[in-house]
């Protein structure tokens, strides 16, 4: 697959990270007791949460089999220690410590015991990194580097993941088993979808626009059925949640691919956001909460819309600014906020087979 056909992933990440930031900022506004239309907020929140994290597990799964082929099982886990576990630990401590210091200004009370329980109970948005690392470890143990992928093995893997998803919905599994079982299906859909990408492209590319329209209609219809006639929310753990998540993933991926094909320059902002999605994910709650504290406690501004716009802008722009700052040679030590120094790195020196 050529680069032109691959950079849609960053466009999809860009759409997804916008939804993540909006979701957390809006929840912070509601938790702060500001005036909102609760009916609108509840439905919008449920729609977003019905698919935006499954989307990120799907997109992360795209890198499973290539990583396994490149590094081998042990090397893949080592690489994920650097790229997922390390920032999880660093930013859990940074955000948790900040929340403890500023707890009298925020909507939640935090103590250091909660912060230091990060090895078994991730805080706030960091649960995603915790579960994602667990999925990479699980699949590195389960799969073999040179194990051939066939149609049969794909169906068995996805079928097993579907069974795990059903168990996570219908049984009260303890954490993290409930999250691992609930998101494995999307992770493997991404992994095996990437493996079969050429076949999928050959058969589906001629119908790209009809498929995009169909996925949009399916998404809107499923969300309407779920939230209006059935009066359900994403937290109700209905079997329909799988349909909502899959239709949302299809729609966002279709939109991302359409953005790439369109060549419209201003749409590249989504690609840029996707490139910075990791630092934005790590820092957006600190940035958004900080702006809310400044606006409400010090400037005495209580406009909900202003808080929402300022919170989303800060949640995106401040993390990007900080990350770009850390990449400057003069500020080299700040790079260790996102990746470990060489002496602490677990990443293999070279890929398996010298690739």
From TrEMBL:
GO terms for molecular function: O-acetyltransferase activity. It comes from the Bacteria. It is a multi-pass membrane protein. GO terms for biological process: enterobacterial common antigen biosynthetic process. Its main location: membrane. Residues 7-322 form the Acyltransferase domain. The chain crosses the membrane at residues 7-26, 46-65, 85-105, 125-143, 155-173, 179-196, 203-222, 242-260, 280-299, 305-325. GO terms for cellular component: plasma membrane. It is found in: Cell membrane. Keywords: Acyltransferase, Cell membrane, Membrane, Transferase, Transmembrane, Transmembrane helix. Pfam families: Acyl_transf_3. InterPro entries: Acyl_transf_3_dom (IPR002656). Belongs to the acyltransferase 3 family. This is Acyltransferase. It comes from Undibacterium oligocarboniphilum.
């Amino acid at each position: 697959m050529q680069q032109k056909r691959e950079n849609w992933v960053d466009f999809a990440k860009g759409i997804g990270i916008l939804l993540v930031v909006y979701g957390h900022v809006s929840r912070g506004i509601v938790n702060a007791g500001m005036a909102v239309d609760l009916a609108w907020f509840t439905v919008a929140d449920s729609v977003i949460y019905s698919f935006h994290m499954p989307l990120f597990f799907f997109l992360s799964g795209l890198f499973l089999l290539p990583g396994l082929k490149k590094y081998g099982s042990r090397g893949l886990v080592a690489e994920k220690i650097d790229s997922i576990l390390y920032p999880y630990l660093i930013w859990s401590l940074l955000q948790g410590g900040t929340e403890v210091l500023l707890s009298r200004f925020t909507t939640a009370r935090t103590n250091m015991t909660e912060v230091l329980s990060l090895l078994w109970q991730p805080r706030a948005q960091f649960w995603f990194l915790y579960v994602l690392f667990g999925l990479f470890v699980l699949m590195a143990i389960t799969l073999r580097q040179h194990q051939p992928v066939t149609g049969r093995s794909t169906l068995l893997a996805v079928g097993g993941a579907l069974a795990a998803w059903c168990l996570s919905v219908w049984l009260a599994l303890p954490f993290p088993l409930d999250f691992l079982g609930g998101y494995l299906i999307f992770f493997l859909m991404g992994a095996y979808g990437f493996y079969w990408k050429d076949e999928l492209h050959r058969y589906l590319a001629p119908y790209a626009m009809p498929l995009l329209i169909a996925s949009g209609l399916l998404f809107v219809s499923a969300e309407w059925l779920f939230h209006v006639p059935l009066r359900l929310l994403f937290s109700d753990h209905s079997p329909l949640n799988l349909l909502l998540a899959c239709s949302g993933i299809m729609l966002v991926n279709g939109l991302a691919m359409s953005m790439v094909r369109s060549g419209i320059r201003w749409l590249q902002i989504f690609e840029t956001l996707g490139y910075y999605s990791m630092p934005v994910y790590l820092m957006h709650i600190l940035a958004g909460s900080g702006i809310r504290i400044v606006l409400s406690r010090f400037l005495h501004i209580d406009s909900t819309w202003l808080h929402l716009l300022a919170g989303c802008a800060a949640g995106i722009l401040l993390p990007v600014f900080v990350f770009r700052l850390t990449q400057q040679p003069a500020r080299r030590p700040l790079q260790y906020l996102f990746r470990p120094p060489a002496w602490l790195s677990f990443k293999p020196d070279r890929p398996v087979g010298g690739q």
